[in-house]
Amino acid sequence: MKTIQLTAFGGLRAHAFALALGVIAVAARADRTPEVPAGLQVPEGNKVEFHAYAVGVQIYQWNGTAWVFVAPEAVLFADAGAHGEVAIHYAGPTWESNSGSKVVGARVAGATVDPTAIPWLLLQAKTAEGPGIFARTTYIQRVNTAGGIAPATAGSSVGQQARVPYTAEYYFYRAQD
Fold first, then answer.
1. Helix (H, G, I), strand (E, B) or coil at 14
2. Cα 87 to Cα 172: distance, rounded to the nearest angstrom
3. Which residue, 174, 15, 1, 163, is CA-closest to 87?
4. pLDDT digits (tens, 9 = 90+) for 59-95
5. 93 prior amide bond cis, ω within 30
6. For residue 65, how far is the Cα from the chain centroid?
7. Exposure letters 128-141 (e unless 16+ CB within 10 A, then b)
8. Residue 149's Cα: distance from chain center in Å?
9. E strand segments, the chain
10. Alpha-carbon distance 7 to 13, whole Å?
11. Which of 13, 90, 127, 140 shows a CA-CA span of 20 to 30 A to 134?
C-alpha cells in the first residue's frame, strides 16, 4: 500500500482541520446518501457502503500561463475529527484502504457548490479490487468540499508546484444485491 504521511504536508493537519471546522455538513437522508445537486445523484440500484472524511492537498503545477491540476494527496478518516485512518487517496483518482482494497474512479459529473472550494463530484468506478471496504465499489461522490482550488496568482516559474489544502467527504457505493 502506498503511504502518505500528513506530517509531510508541512503543517497541513492543523490547517485542514481548521478548514473542516468551517464546512457546513450536508444533511444525509435515512439511507445515508448525501443531499446533492441532481447531476451528482448516483443511479438507482446502488447504496452507500462506506463514508469517509478526507484531509489532504490538491496538487497543481504552473505551465507558464495557468495552474494545471496534477493529483490529489489525502488521508481518509472514519470520522470528521480525523480519528481512525482508513485509507489514502492519490492520482488516478485512486482510493486505497488499509485493508488492501483499491478503487480507481472516472469523473462522471461535477458541480461548483462553493466558489472557494473544489467542485463536488460524481465518479464511476473503473476498477475495484482486493478484499476490504472498496471491493465492489460502483460509484464515488465527493461532497462537502473546503479549499483545494488552484492559486489565484500566477506561478513564478514553469513547473512550480502548489499544494493546496482541502477537506471533503467521500461516499462509496455498491450495487444492491
1. helix
2. 12
3. 1
4. 999 999 999 999 999 999 999 999 999 999 999 999 9
5. yes
6. 26
7. beeebbbbbbbbbb
8. 13
9. 46-62, 67-77, 85-90, 94-97, 102-111, 120-129, 137-147, 161-175
10. 7
11. 13
Rounded-to-integer distance, Cα 137 and Cα 62, Å: 34
Q: Using CA atoms, how far apart are residues 33 and 173, in angstroms rounded to an integer?
A: 9
Compute CA distances 47 → 43, 92, 113, 118, whole Å.
Answer: 9, 23, 23, 25
pLDDT digits (tens, 9 = 90+) for 8-63: 444 444 444 444 433 333 444 446 899 999 999 999 999 999 999 999 999 999 99
Q: Where are the alpha helices (DSSP H) in the chain?
A: 12-22
Phi and psi torsions of 93, nearest 5°: -70, 140
Residue that is written with C-alpha cell 448516483 in the block: 42
What distance in Å separates the CA atoms of residue 107 and residue 20, rounded to the nearest whole number?
24
CA distance 45 to 74: 29
Rounded Cα distance between 97 and 83, Å, is: 15
75: left (phi over 0), alpha (psi -120 to 50) or beta: beta
